[in-house]
Design goal:
Layout lengths: L1 H11 L3 H27 L9 E5 L13 E4 L5 E7 L11 E6 L4 E16 L14 E9 L1 H7 L8 E6 L2 E2 L1
Antiparallel strand pairs: 1-2, 3-6, 4-5, 4-7, 5-6, 7-8
């Protein structure tokens, strides 16, 4: 019986080599956990700006192409880009009032001219009128919508709009 008890005590005793093996396995598991946690953190996407996701180009597991993962925009202040004929651009000034009609919502919004492009280019937007001048030369004009107007169209980035800019002696 004493011999059996001695054998039991010997089996219960932790051998230093077994302890070292267990410590090494624990360290390896902890290192694997740290790598997995870092890999997970590396998959998170953080926007450099606060805003709203406008369009998603890639989903989890997909290859990210030239367009990136997604488009983010600040929709608190919405802008409209209007094409003004080259012959009329001299009448447009910063600070002028603009009326922006959005057919999708059937609303007219107030805006202000805040910028003019420095390049004359071919028209990008085309009229449905079959006799419209599709080779027209235009200058892009940027219009900032009022806060109320911005709130109404915040969910409609790139919507089509009709713009009238109030110029002295008439409208354009």
């Amino acid at each position: 019986m004493e011999q059996a008890e001695a054998q039991l005590e010997a089996l219960k005793a932790i051998r230093p080599v077994d302890l070292k093996v267990a410590e090494a396995e624990l360290a390896q598991a902890e290192a694997g956990l740290a790598i997995a946690q870092q890999d997970l953190k590396d998959t998170e996407v953080h926007s450099p700006i606060s805003g709203q996701v406008l369009r998603i180009h890639a989903r989890p597991g997909e290859e990210v192409k030239d367009k990136g993962i997604l488009e983010v925009g600040n929709t608190d202040v919405m802008h409209v880009v209007a094409e003004v004929y080259e012959a009329d651009i001299g009448k447009v000034r910063l600070g002028q009032t603009a009326k922006v009609y959005v057919p999708t919502l059937r609303v007219q919004l107030a805006g202000e001219v805040i910028g003019k492009n420095l390049v004359v280019a071919r028209q990008d937007l085309f009229d449905n009128d079959p006799v419209a001048d599709i080779d027209a030369r235009v200058v892009e004009v940027r219009i900032r919508l009022s806060p109320e107007g911005s709130a109404k169209v915040a969910g409609l980035s790139n919507a089509r709009a009709e713009v009238v800019i109030e110029v002295s002696g008439g409208t354009r």
